[in-house]
Amino acid sequence: MLDKLEPPAIPEGYGVSVAYYCLLDIVRSIHLVIMGPLAASDGSSGELYRPSEEERQIHEQLVNSAWCGLLAALTILLEACTDEAATENVLKAVQTFASLAGKLDLTTPRDAFITALCKSCLPPHYTLTVLNNASVAAAASSSSMQRGHQRSPSAESQHQYYDAEVRHQVVAVGTALATPSLPVGAQQGPVMLTNKNLQCMRATLSMAHCHGGVLGAAWHLLLTTLQHLVWILGLKPSTGGSLKAGRSTAETNAVITTAVIADLPVLSSMLSRLFESSQHLDDVALHHLIDALCQLSRESMELAYTNREPSLFAVAKLLETGVVNLGRVEVLWRPVTNHLLDVCQHPHVRMREWGVEAVTYLVKAALTHKHNPPLKDNQKLQTLLLSPLSEVSLVGHPDVRQKQLESLLHILHSCGELLHHGWPLILNIIGAINDNHSEHLVRLAFQCLQLVVTDFLPLMPWACLPLTVDTAAKFGSQTQELNISLTAIGLMWNISDYFYQNQEKLRASLTSDNQVFPDFPGVPNMPPFDKLWMCLYARLGDLCVDSRPAVRKSAGQTLFSTIAAHGALLHNQTWQAVLWQVLFPLLDKVRQLSDSASTDKVDQGGNILIHHSRNTQQKQWAETQVLTLSGVARVFSTKQKILQGLGDFPRAWALLLDFIHTAALSKSNEVSLAALKSLQEMLQAGRSSTGTISSSYGEESDLQNVIQNPIPEDSIANWNTAWKVWHTIGAEVTKPPPDEVTRGSDAYIPSQPFLTALVHIFPHLFQHIKPRFVVSDFSRLASVLSGCVSVPVHGDSSPFILPSFTEVVVTPLQEGVLQALAAVEKEVTDGNGATRSMVPQLFTLLLQFSSYSCQAPNYGNVVTRPHTTKGSTDWVTMNFVPFAEKSLSMVVSLYQTTASWQEVIEAQVLKNIIQGLIMPLRMKYRCPAQTTWKLAITTLLTVLQEGLQLAREHSSHFREMWPVLGTALDNFLFSNSPPPANQSSEDAERDESIDCQVVELIREEILPYASATPSEFIVSIMVLLNKGSIESASGMDSECEGFKLREEFAKTCFETLLQFSLLTPTDFDVKLDNTANAGSSKDSEPSNGNITQDASGNISTGDCTQVTTKLAVTSLLHRFREVLVRYVEDEKLSGKCPLPRHRIAEISFVLKAIATLLSSLKKAPVDKVDSMTWTQLIGLYPHLVEVGGSSNSGTPQLWRSLREVLLQYAQLLHAPTPCPTTDSNDNSHIGVINGT
């Protein structure tokens, strides 16, 4: 070298190469000094760094002295380097020095080198504030100035950089990720990545992978860089947190060369391995990593608030980090999940979706991870793992809730049997529904609940059972989907079955935990098993007042079915809570809501048709009221023995009766009828539980049974309360509307089914109250029954209630009234003397009912029409004929039983009966039904058979009866009601025979006892008989075609009149036997001649009677003469035309009557017949002869009658003598007459 004039030329770049190698050796030397000669050349040492204190100080000084210069030099080399191998060496040197600073806890040099490394990964002038940290730059500048190493970038170096960039190939073009420093709305151009950027990215990943434990806070720098690179390359998070390339350019907004497309999966895999390696980090380093990811995620969330597209890198990598570190889940769980829960609440959809995806994926992975100790036995761990999933319920976004519930359903299917201690959280998740959630969300949550109730109830701890019931009740009350509500109520039934089937197991495991069970005041020592049932009953009771009718109905049916099926499991004292905390509050709420319900028609949305009986809210609540009231009554019915053991049963009984009373007075027919059915069910059950009450006191054994087993006072009070309620209901519903109301539509008129049910209750109630049933009670009963039967029927329903006119049947209501009275009658007739005082009132009520056959009762001033007519009137009067006739029949049977009772005699019952019969007897053919007057006269004849003898024995009590009887007989026998025009001869004869029966009664039961009968009555009877005997002879009968002759009746009257006026009883008896053949025998004289007369006996009648009889005979003879004269005149005028049949019958009867009168007068004592009578009789003889001469077309019957009467005149051809003539004289007289 010295012998040459010129020095050799130094190769271009020689100095840079020497400097390059020197820098690398310096870094390697420092690494060897600090880490030792055995350390790996790349700086990745698995050995721990454990220097002494003195060595550590030396090492720190080395790093602090060298890092600024090295950083400046290596940064320039890295910027300018175009060779991949050289770039790789520089990157390794940077990594090595950064790791050394990290091991010495020198954060400033560590962060400076990592910042340089990160900058090399990104395009020049990339807007990234975090990489231009002011504090790092300031520290580096001050340290460099102290050592004279300050260097400012020259224009040349910048030029060189850009020249180098041009020389490098651009492998990817993408969009920049927005940062908080970028103004909102600012536009960023495309970002280009070169191979060198990707090489630096790999180095960065290697740095984080190998030296993650010493990065500390620098994780944020490194992860921020990786996030931007991933964004530019278009890598998107996928399931589990790994990153994958977008499927198309449209998805990623990135243009990537073919060479790099093949590298993207490798880069994604390196990223995943980076976070998978976090499982090798210590807890502190892991927290640094998690904090960096959370900070990065918060920055993305801030961006998303300004409606800019956020990066999901941090959320995805948090998930990936959490999954690989499940072995130490307690360390990372809270910070990771707390941040992810914040992400779940973000308004940005994508951010929120990935937040909940990360939470749910983590929870599912953690629950399936094999923990030590096992998850099944670790209560704390189960609670820790499920808590984040439970806290997601606080998020209001439906998409988040949907993901939560889908995950929960997956968890239940995959590992539900392991979660013994996590059920409270699971049930809280399922039950966290509200009306703001969509139908799909509710359905998804309900699927989870169905799975829990179906498969996991046996695995659930007992403390969760009340929560399960509450959760099912929440689904019953949700309003999004009706079918889910109904199915949820069905689940509650399944839960009750589980309680029942596992009762022994539950009783053994349950404890009285006040935090688990709600308070049930009033029953302090309630067993835990009973508290479980009370939770179920209380929730079902709440659902019974839901706003939807179908839910109320289903809940009510389930509640009462559950009580009926499983109520026997409860302790007796628990029933107090069932009554006072479930059933009665339920009745009260239903009543209040029903009263306040709207009467407007429900909007019939869609194509659903609503029946008219359910088209208003009030009608829908009426159905609930019916269900509730009948259900509670059924509980009282079936559980009465248990309930009677409670101290406050009388109060409960009275309260339920009060609810029934209120409901029975409801304007809704459905509610009122159900109230009565409930009352009847209570009474029927009470009858079986107190059987001694229902036994008849008529038998001695039953009476002894009652004496030995007296009825408790509480029971007596209960039944008295029931009787008062029944009477109050009956009195109020049958009260007629005010007088000013004339239209039924303006007032509430109870329906026939309601009144029928009310009346049917009484016989059951009477069995309990009859020992204490007194006259005043019967008066109340009578007012209710009479009010019931007087209520009219609405015209629309009358065809279904009223029988047709031809049917002789009573309506169900009338039948019920008769049954009620029959029950009272049985008790009165079979019971003791105390009940006999009710008999007169019973007669009065029955007679009142019997009068309805002729005159229907009024219901206030409401206008009604008869059931037999049609018209515009809405309300129809009942058909009372069958009912009245049955009442009358009851009167007869009752009087036959009780006629001799002193109470009946003193109350003048017979007079009242006769008085009640006067109307149908007087109306006769004008009665609505012809059976009425026939039954009335039959009744009269029957009761007189019993009562006349008593009337004679107790004359003082029957004094007023006789005039009434006389009026009744007169009104019937001489009614002004003509028979129907179409009456057949057979019917006429049948009716006439009834009239004759009445006269027979007079002849057999009254007149023979005239001495014991008031004379005024005897006079009236004689007048009546006289009237009957001359009726056919009156001109009125023959002129009025509406009336028909009653020959037999008149003959009977005439014979009776003569018999008791002129003859002795003995003569009458003999005469009675022969008069029957008088009309049919052609030769009556021998029979008359064979009569034996006993003149020693006189008929015992008063003077008044004899005067009346004489007047009657005189009147008769006068009438006879008129008939004879008229007949002769008419016969002459008729020529050859015969007279009408009734005229022939009339004259025939007159002839027979004259013959009978002659025969009777001849047999009577002489002093009994005055001369006027004989004169009149003799005066008739010429007219009789005229009849014989004028008859052109007489019938054989007429000729026989004429012959008989003329034969009787034989003895009158000479003056009569006191002693009777001989048979020979009679025969000679007969012969003389025959000869003439």
TrEMBL record:
Which part of the chain is the Mon2/Sec7/BIG1-like HDS domain? Answer: 371-450
- The positions making up the signal sequence are none
User: Which SUPFAM superfamilies does the record associate with it?
Assistant: ARM repeat (SSF48371)
Residue ranges of the region described as Disordered: 1077-1098
Q: Where is the Mon2 C-terminal domain?
A: 454-689, 716-1216
Domain of life (superkingdom): Eukaryota
Protein name according to UniProt: Endocytosis and vacuole integrity protein
Question: Which organism does this record belong to?
Answer: Halocaridina rubra
